[in-house]
Specification:
2 domains, 2 strands, two-stranded antiparallel sheet, single chain, alpha+beta, about 150 residues, Cyanate Lyase, Chain: A, domain 2, 434 Repressor (Amino-terminal Domain), Lambda_DNA-bd_dom_sf
Length: about 150
């Protein structure tokens, strides 16, 4: 009996097939019938997919059942420390380092003592035209969880 393929190996095969087939994350998310950012994160190993979602992804990507099986496994959510050096990921960390304390203060002022959930959470990305160059709009939409004693 062979072990279940690792999430990083499945993600590498997903990326390979996307490149070889000229697919976009949007096209795969449409096939999976799930939100774009969630689907992308799932295919990169951060969320488990249902059997139907994994099957749809593997069908559009021409990947085998071994990849589908891996995509259904519960992930260990973490980040490879080398990814923190990627300029895009680094800028997200930088933005949170600069604006995180202000966002926390504003959340507390508006909602009270609590946090924004990253579990009951949605995230979206959009492009907005701007005269100085297009803007990247990232929306974090998390449920407010108040501290209860």
């Amino acid at each position: 009996m062979d072990p279940i393929m690792s999430r990083p190996d499945a993600a590498a095969l997903v990326r390979t097939q996307m490149s070889r087939k000229g697919l976009t994350w949007t096209k795969v998310a449409e096939a999976v019938d799930a939100p774009l950012v969630w689907t992308t994160a799932a295919l990169l190993g951060q969320h488990p997919m249902t059997a139907a979602q994994a099957s749809a992804a593997c069908e559009v990507l021409d990947l085998g059942d071994d990849v589908g099986e891996s995509l259904q496994q519960q992930p260990s959510r973490s980040i490879d420390p080398t990814l923190l050096q990627d300029p895009t990921i680094y800028r997200f960390n930088e933005a949170l380092a600069v604006y995180g304390p202000a966002l926390k203060a504003l959340i507390h002022e508006e909602f009270g003592d609590g946090i924004m959930s990253a579990i009951n959470f949605q995230v979206d990305i959009a492009r907005r035209a701007h005269p100085d160059g297009d803007r990247v709009v990232v929306t974090f939409d998390g449920k407010f969880l108040d501290y209860r004693w």
